[in-house]
Amino acid sequence: MTNIVILTGAGISAESGLGTFRDKNGLWTKYDLNEVATPEGFARNPDLVHDFYNARRANCQNAQPNAAHSALARLQAQHWGRVTIITQNVDDLHERGGATDVIHMHGRLSGALCAACDHRWAAPAAMSPTDLCPACNKPVSRPDIVWFGEMPYHMDEIYKHLSDADLFVAIGTSGNVYPAAGFVADARASGAKTLELNLEPSATAGIFDDAHFGPATIIVPQWVSELVDAS
Ligand code: OAD
After folding, report:
1. Residue 91 Cβ < 6 Å to ligand 1
2. Is 87 a pocket residue for ligand 1 (Cβ < 6 Å)?
3. How many CA atoms, within 13 angstroms, populate the side-chain half-sphere of residue 149?
4. Between β-strands 120-122 and 107-114, what pairing exists: parallel, antiparallel or unpaired?
5. pLDDT for the residue 38
6. Residue nearest ligand 1's atom 14 by CA
């Protein structure tokens, strides 16, 4: 397995105490995603949107990477081929767990973005609608997060990695949000083997060649050990 491409979702950070979206008690059972995760919601009520992401940024800062994040960092360090991590998560737990080269397709909580001029800078702990853009001075600062209806980041680079993949692994993602949910089919079409590691079968479970189900902190280190020890 020369090129391993890994897609992660909220399930990998669940045991670090960060909520998932669609599980029982998930974030989308408590908040209306149309109000907090769309450009239209931001235009209607920027205070509400900033409050939502400020709370998530604070949770993220108080959370620690778990054994699944560390195991993927170990794989990147010890696998003889290339290991690319693509995450839908906006936290920084992969990086704090030691991973390098993480592609954040849905943006990051640590970033701020000017809705007027697209300038990016490091987000303060608490963002507010009256924050001025350091480049153009307009008060339309938003979190650097990809919302519903917006194009995820780095898609050209991601599709190149998928077409070169020998093994595609999805970890802790429900397979409900495209384009990420389609990556397994894209990787398969390019000849990659595919593996799902999740608490329970995702919406796209039928497409994977193989699967292990259980908590990420157990099944991800197990899978990494098998792969690293076998090489
Ligand atoms: P979801 O909340 O949709 O799915 C989380 C997945 O993690 C589910 O399949 C759970 O079974 C699994 N899971 C839960 N706890 C786990 C654990 N301890 N170990 C392993 N797996 C576990 O989250 P995502 O698929 O990441 O986008 O959601 C995709 C996107 O939808 C997010 O990036 C976000 C959201 O709306 C935006 O906000 C744009």
Report:
1. no
2. no
3. 10
4. antiparallel
5. 97
6. 11
